[in-house]
Amino acid sequence: MKILIRDVLLDGTVTDIFMDNGVILQISPSCARTADKVIDGRGKAALPSLINGHTHAAMTLFRGFADDMPLKNWLEEKIWVLESKLTEDDVYQGARLACLEMIKNGVTVFNDMYWHWEATARAAADMKIRGFISAVFIDMFDEGTGREQIALNRDLYALSKDYEPYATFTFGPHALYTVSKASLEWMRDFAAEKDILIHMHLAETADEDRFLQDKYNMSPVEFLDSIGLFSQRYIGCHGCQLGKADVEILKERDARLVHVPVSNLKLAVGKVFPHRLIEEAGIPYCFGTDGCASNNHLDVLETMKFASLLAKFHTGDPTMLPARQTLEMATRTAADIFRLGPWVIAEGLSPDIILIDLNRPEFVPNFDIYSDMVYAANGSAVDTVICMGEVLMENRVVPGEEEIMMRASEAAHALVKR
Question: Same domain, yes or no, for 88 and 70?
Answer without folding.
Answer: yes
